[in-house]
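User: Hey, quick favor. My workstation is busy. Could you predict this chain's structure for me?
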Amino acid sequence: MFETLSDRLTSVFSSLRSKGRLSDADIDATTREIRIALLEADVALPVVKAFVAQVKERARGSEVSQALNPAQQVVKIVNDELIGILGGETRRLRFAKTPPTVIMLAGLQGAGKTTLAGKLARWLREQGHAPMLVAADLQRPNAVQQLQVVGERAQVAVFAPEPGSGVGDPVEVARRSLDEARRLNHDIVIIDTAGRLGIDQEMMKQAADIRDAVTPDETLFVVDAMIGQDAVTTAQAFMEGVGFDGVVLTKLDGDARGGAALSVRHITGRPIMFASTGEKLEDFDAFHPDRMASRILDMGDILTLIEQAQKTFDEEQAAKMAGKLTSGENFTLEDFLEQMMMVQKMGPIKNLLGMMPGMGQMRDQINSIDDRDLDRIAAIIRSMTPGERQDPKIINGSRRARIAAGSGVSVSAVSNLITRFYEAQKMMKRMAGGMGIPGMPGGKGKNAKAQKKAKKGRRVSGDPRKAALGKQPSESAPDEPKQGGVLGNLGGKLPPGMELPPGFDPSKLRLPGQK
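Assistant: No problem, here it is.
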C-alpha cells in the first residue's frame, strides 16, 4: 500500500546521510521532497501542510543542530510526526460494564463491511469473547446470506431473523438482537448495517435510527483504503450524519497510494482502530500507529512478526526445534518440512520478509518470490520414505528418479534440494560451534579442546610437498590470521562481505558475559 511513499522517503533520507551538518537549504529541500512524496501518495492537502510545517519547525530546532548525526535525527522527527498523524497510540475497544457490548459498523457499499464483520468477530473470539453477528443490512441482495457464510467460516453465531433483499425492518432486527444475545450469553454484538454506493439521506437516517435504537458502545466507520481523497469526504459526511468512534481500514494490501490512512485520522479526529490486510479472515489486526510509521520508513515491523510467530508456533515444539538448530545435529528433512509448514501458516513469505528492516531496497526480489516454490519443496520431501528423510545420504540416482516422479518435478530439483539441505546443516553446525568466537556458544567448549588436542598431536609428513601444505599460516606468512580462534571453524576464511579488517585482534574483544 505505501510502497511509493516509502521509496520516496527512503531516497530523501539517503541523500542526507552524507551531510555532517544540515543547513536551512538542506532542511527546505528535504521538506519539499517530503511534501511531494505525501501529495503523490494522495494524502489530503491540509494534512500535508500541517505535517511538513511541524517537521520543518522541529528540524530547525536544537535537537537537530546539536545532534551528532543530524540525518538520523531528521528521520526520527519524521517518524514521530507520522505516528502522531496516524493516531499516536493504539486505541483499544471499549467494552460495556454490563454485557453485551454493542459494536455498530457503518460505511459505503463495497468498503467490505460484511467481510470485516466476520474478521472482527473471529479476532474477538480468539481473544476469549463470544461474539454474535447481526444481519441488519436488509437492502443489498444476498447480504444476509453472505453474512451467514462469513459467520460460519469465522465459527461465530449469526442473528438473521429476516431474509433481506429488501424484506424486513433493520432497526427492529438490531433491537431484537440485544435480547437474543442476553438469552444466549453472547458478550459482544456486531451489527452489520446497510451501505450505499454514495452518500444519501435514506442511508444516513437508517444508520442513525439503528444507533438510537441500540446505543452502541462503539460505532466503527469502515473505509476502503484504496479510494484516496474520497475517503476523507465520506468520513466527514458520516461524522456529521451518524457520528463514529473509530475507523477501520480495509484493503490495505492493495496497490493504491494509501493516503486515506494518513488523512482520515487527522481530518476527523477519530483514531484508526483496526486494519484489514488481505482477503482471508485471519488477515486482520489492531492498528498500531508506531508500527505503520516504521513500515512506511522502511524500518520494518519486528513486533508484528514476533506476534505472528507466537500465534503460529507451539512453545514446546519451538523449544525442541531450537535445541536441534543450536546443536546442529539430528536436524532432518522431516524437521525442515515441519518448520516450513509453520512458516507458511504465518502468511505469504513476501509479507513476512516485508516486515524486516531495510527490505524496501530488495522489493523487486521479494515480489519475485512465489509461495508455490514451498509447495514444490514439500511435495519432494513427502515423496521420500521416512528413512530417506532421516538420512538423505542413502538417496542414490534411482531413488532420486522415483522421488522426482512422485512429486512431479525434475531429478535436478530433487538434487538441488538435498544439496541446499546439506549446506543448511553445515551452517547450523558452524553456528552451534560459535564459529570459534570467544564468548559465543561453543566458542570455548569441546570444539576448542579438540582443536588444541589435534594441534598438539599433529605429525609432519616426510614429503616436503605435503609438509608445506600442512604448515600453519603463521609459519609461512606471519601477517595471515592463525588457524583456530576466530577463523578456526571456517578453515581460515569468512564468507564474502564478512572479512576482518587488517590488524584486527580478536583476543581484545569483550563480549557480553566476559569480564
